[in-house]
């Protein structure tokens, strides 16, 4: 195909070259071309090879530390320990690799959950298809916020601008036209009548013919050069990398300390050295980071199941700390399934029946059905304006999808349905009134206009927000025909608008005029003035049923909800009241105009209001609110769907885009995408975010808790003449064997009850804080130590040992006592893992069977321990002794002590949270 000078071709040449027409290609032809050209996809360049990623697990800092330890063991004449450490390195590397792999798989599978769609004309009908199925020759329709899905030549463009940054680096939107390029100096990439894959439509709309797809596009050509994966670490991961290093150094210090202490107390060099190496090896937290990554990835997967796709692992933890949600109204809090209910004109007031998008329903005036064959003049005109000043399409039911639907903006869709209820169809109407231009809707102007031919005459049809439309009207259609718009008319219209708004209805105004045939440039200034006001259309957009509960949950969780909407204040307030965002008699409603005049300081003061709504705002205002909130130290989640929402989405801690109704651009900059556009999913995601953060704390607590019962006996051993309380190999078996699965399982705990009853954590809170250390090392650690030492001395004394008697490890009694300590740590860790399942709630409030992996982990832990104790070959390696079953039961008696102490701690914590909440409530 000759595409080099595609921008110089006339429309006819273009159609001929690409073997297509204004009606697009046929479905069969599309299939054939798909086979020929392949999917419209950018092929990913192979990332770092699996092998080198696997090897990386052997060469990071902590692994190197272990290698050194193993070499020292060999040099020091302890090959058994040396081999054990190598085994540890291998097991750890395999484990980490598997975790990373699973985490990656989890995030990769999410990508597939958010396919990109495109509006295409095939067989003369507009339909929506997957962007990857696009082929050369397809005629596509592009509008504000769309991602350009392939390289295409424009054949029609209305006020269209694209952002070509991905291709040219230029971030300012550039103007696009459909004119043939005659200038010789223009290159393909500069041609204003071409749109390229990877760029976005910043404003306006247009129709284009695809000439290159997939790797044949300009973007495809450069993508293969520039594709890189940026594996950005989350703050949590960064914090943990630091913590892991600190712990590694600490264990180094501890190792040296025990070494010196042992020597000082006259222990043999070999014994103390071996123990020091063991302590270091056991405590180097090499598994910490991959476990956190996996916990985050699992969180991401759970969120996806609850309709929130998180694009960066790091957002999971940020989400958990959200303190404010700034949300749109339409589509997020409401269903975005509009149905026109009432129509007001200066002549009459109409009610409209029917539900959803099915074009079935009647018009009534004072309960009298209107005969649609004999429509009153002003109603007929109003319906035509709504139908023609419109870019949506009604989708008829099919066998696959038996319900009526729309393609495009639901506000506009409802107007198509309305017109069809009176028997008008878009095709017929466009035949009578062909469209010659349009001034697309934008959320600043809050209006849309389309320009049509009618015979030799030219008409302008405008619809938009009532006050914004009224401001460009000078006439009104009344009983006596067209008359000058008086103040009394304006008062009537505003009064009626407020009435509609107070009952939560969304209102649009319709206006029109005939214009001079001489006008050639249809700009906003030339066209949107001196209009004739026709009437108001009020549509219902019911709140989503699940939102009310979600709002309640968010409030309970101490999260403030601020509605920021383009809609009218009274409509916004009415909806906010219905779903419980507003409860007080007088919420503060700030309009975009007011906000413009407000200083940042004043805005911050206003934001302290408990109930606040921003109405009739433009997207830029959202940015101002988000910036002020962030300045106040809040962690802000904000929703957005349009191109102009991008700065606010970027600025916020969590930018949330809509998967269904939002634009591609918003989805691209957002950190989270809601696949169901539903506010309730944000609250669910916050719950999951909190759970992930808690889980990481849970498994770190669990891991920390075994260090104390390992260290205390050994300190006693160093200081007093007692038999070896636990051997290095046994410690390694615990830390790197029995512990692993239960720790991992804590990372995937579902959210604990009451996780949304607490206030958000402070953004300054550190993951590893004093309370975590105290809980792990002190509370849980000391109780375990008491149990372990009791078991150890019980075995010794009942075996005939007395204080001061020297007993080498070769003595069966010494081995039996050491095995008892080993068994004690394992069994106390079983109690510990159940205690760690919750941080605040009672352990008994979560179902025992909910975390399957945890139960499997515990069984694995116990079976492995039994093997280590009873299999003769393992007994030799681990210096274990086959203790009788009653010794196991000995520790079971200690389990309630640990669990009871934890339950008391949790109870006190719950009381504290509840009284804090009361205080907070009282202060508002
Ligand atoms: P939210 O910001 O909560 O999503 P919204 O949809 O009302 O609410 P915008 O899309 O900015 O916000 O719309 C602002 C106003 O412009 C609407 O309240 C409506 O009056 C008007 N409007 C919306 N869509 C159209 C359209 N397609 N054509 C003309 N006017 C429209």
UniProtKB/TrEMBL annotation:
UniProt keywords, alphabetically: ATP-binding, Cell membrane, Hydrolase, Membrane, Nucleotide-binding, Translocase, Transmembrane, Transmembrane helix
Transmembrane segments: 54-75, 81-98, 246-266, 272-297, 772-797, 817-835, 856-873, 885-901
GO molecular function terms listed in the Swiss-Prot or TrEMBL record: ATP binding; ATP hydrolysis activity; ATPase-coupled monoatomic cation transmembrane transporter activity
Membrane topology designation: Multi-pass membrane protein
Domain of life of the organism encoding this protein: Bacteria
UniProt source species: Thermoanaerobacterium xylanolyticum (strain ATCC 49914 / DSM 7097 / LX-11)
Family statement drawn from the similarity comment of this UniProt entry: Belongs to the cation transport ATPase (P-type) (TC 3.A.3) family. Type IIA subfamily.
E.C. numbers: 3.6.3.8
UniProt KW Transcription regulation keyword: no
GO BP of this protein: proton transmembrane transport
Subcellular locations according to the entry: Cell membrane
CC terms in the record's Gene Ontology section: plasma membrane
Protein name: ATPase, P-type (Transporting), HAD superfamily, subfamily IC
EC class (word): hydrolase
Domain (Cation-transporting P-type ATPase N-terminal): residue spans on this chain: 5-78
Xref: InterPro entries: ATPase_P-typ_cation-transptr_C, ATPase_P-typ_cation-transptr_N, ATPase_P-typ_cyto_dom_N, ATPase_P-typ_P_site, ATPase_P-typ_TM_dom_sf, ATPase_P-typ_transduc_dom_A_sf, ATPase_P-type_domA, Cation_transp_ATPase_P-type
């Amino acid at each position: 195909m000759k595409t080099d000078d595609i921008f110089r071709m006339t429309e006819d040449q273009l159609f001929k070259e690409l073997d297509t027409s204004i009606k697009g290609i046929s479905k069969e032809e599309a299939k054939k071309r798909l086979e020929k050209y392949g999917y419209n996809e950018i092929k990913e360049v192979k990332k770092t090879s699996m092998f080198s990623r696997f090897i990386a697990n052997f060469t990071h800092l902590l692994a190197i530390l272990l290698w050194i330890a193993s070499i020292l063991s060999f040099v020091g004449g302890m090959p058994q320990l040396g081999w054990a450490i190598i085994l540890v390195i291998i097991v750890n590397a395999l484990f980490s690799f598997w975790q990373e792999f699973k985490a990656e798989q989890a995030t990769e599978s999410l990508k597939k959950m958010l396919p990109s769609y495109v509006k295409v004309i095939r067989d003369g009908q507009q339909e929506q298809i997957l962007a990857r199925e696009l082929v050369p020759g397809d005629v596509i329709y592009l509008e504000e916020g769309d991602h350009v899905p392939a390289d295409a030549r424009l054949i029609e463009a209305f006020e269209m601008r694209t952002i070509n940054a991905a291709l040219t680096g230029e971030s300012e939107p550039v103007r696009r036209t459909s004119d043939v390029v005659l200038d010789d100096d223009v290159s393909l990439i500069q041609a204003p009548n071409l749109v390229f894959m990877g760029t976005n439509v910043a404003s306006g709309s247009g129709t284009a013919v695809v000439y290159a797809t997939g790797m044949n596009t300009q973007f495809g050509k450069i993508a293969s050069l520039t594709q890189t994966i940026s594996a950005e670490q989350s703050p949590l991961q960064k914090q943990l990398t630091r913590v892991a290093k600190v712990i590694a150094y600490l264990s180094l210090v501890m190792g040296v300390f025990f070494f010196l202490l042992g020597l000082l107390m006259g222990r043999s060099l070999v014994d103390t050295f071996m123990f020091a190496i063991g302590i270091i090896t056991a405590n180097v937290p090499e598994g910490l980071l991959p476990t956190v990554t996996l916990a985050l990835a699992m969180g991401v997967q759970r969120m996806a199941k609850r309709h929130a796709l998180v694009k960066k692992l790091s957002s999971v933890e940020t989400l958990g700390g959200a303190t404010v949600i700034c949300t749109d109204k339409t589509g997020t809090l409401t269903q975005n399934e509009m149905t026109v209910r009432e129509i007001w004109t200066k002549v009459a007031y109409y009610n409209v029946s029917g539900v959803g998008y099915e074009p079935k329903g009647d018009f009534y005036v004072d309960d009298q059905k209107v005969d649609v064959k004999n429509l009153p003049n002003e109603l007929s005109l109003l319906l035509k304006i709504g139908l023609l000043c419109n870019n949506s399409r009604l989708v008829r039911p099919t066998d696959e999808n038996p319900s009526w639907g729309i393609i495009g903006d639901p506000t506009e869709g409802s107007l198509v349905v309305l017109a069809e209820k009176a028997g008008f169809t878009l095709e017929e109407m466009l035949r009578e009134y062909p469209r010659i231009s349009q001034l697309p809707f934008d959320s600043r102007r809050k209006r849309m206009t389309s320009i049509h031919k009618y015979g030799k005459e030219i008409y302008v049809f405008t619809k938009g927000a009532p006050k914004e439309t009224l401001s460009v009207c000078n006439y009104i259609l009344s009983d006596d025909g067209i008359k000058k718009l008086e103040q009394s008319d304006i008062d009537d219209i505003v009064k009626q608008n407020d009435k509609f708004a107070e009952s939560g209805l969304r209102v649009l105004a319709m206006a029109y005029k005939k214009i001079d045939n001489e006008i050639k440039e249809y700009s906003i200034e030339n066209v949107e003035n001196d209009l004739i006001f026709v009437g108001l259309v009020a549509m219902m957009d019911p709140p989503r049923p699940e939102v009310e509960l979600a709002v309640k949950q968010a409030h309970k969780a101490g999260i403030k909800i601020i509605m920021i909407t383009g809609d009218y204040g009274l409509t916004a307030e009415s909806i906010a009241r219905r779903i419980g965002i507003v409860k007080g008699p007088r919420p503060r409603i700030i309009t975009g105009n007011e906000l413009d005049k407000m200083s940042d300081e004043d805005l911050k003061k206003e934001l302290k209001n408990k109930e606040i709504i921003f109405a009739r705002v433009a997207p830029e205002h959202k940015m101002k609110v988000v910036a002020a909130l962030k300045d106040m130290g809040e962690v802000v989640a904000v929703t957005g769907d349009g191109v102009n929402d991008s700065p606010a989405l970027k600025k916020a801690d969590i930018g949330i885009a809509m998967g269904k109704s939002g634009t591609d651009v918003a989805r691209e900059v957002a950190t989270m995408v809601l696949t169901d556009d539903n506010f309730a999913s944000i609250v669910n995601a916050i719950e999951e975010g909190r759970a992930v953060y808690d889980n990481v704390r849970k498994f770190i607590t669990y891991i920390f808790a075994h260090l104390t019962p390992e260290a205390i006996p050994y300190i006693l051993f160093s200081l007093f003449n007692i038999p070896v309380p636990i051997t290095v190999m046994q410690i390694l078996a615990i830390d790197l064997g029995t512990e692993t699965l239960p720790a991992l399982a804590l990372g995937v705990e579902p959210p604990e009850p009451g996780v949304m009853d607490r206030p958000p954590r402070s953004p300054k809170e550190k993951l590893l804080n004093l309370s975590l250390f105290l809980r792990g090392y002190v509370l849980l650690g000391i109780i375990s130590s008491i149990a372990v030492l009791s078991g150890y001395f019980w075995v010794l004394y009942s075996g005939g040992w007395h204080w001061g008697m020297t007993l080498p490890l070769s003595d069966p009694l010494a081995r039996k006592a050491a095995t008892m300590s080993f068994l004690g740590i394992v069994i106390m860790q079983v109690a510990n893992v159940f205690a760690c399942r919750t941080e605040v709630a009672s352990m008994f409030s979560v179902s025992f069977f909910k975390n399957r992996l945890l139960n499997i982990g515990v069984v694995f832990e116990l079976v492995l321990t039994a093997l280590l104790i009873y299999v003769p070959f393992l007994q030799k390696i681990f210096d274990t002794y086959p203790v009788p079953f009653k010794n196991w039961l000995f520790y079971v008696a200690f389990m309630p002590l640990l669990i009871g102490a934890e339950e008391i701690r949790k109870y006190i914590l719950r009381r504290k949270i509840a009284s804090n909440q009361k205080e907070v409530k009282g202060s508002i």
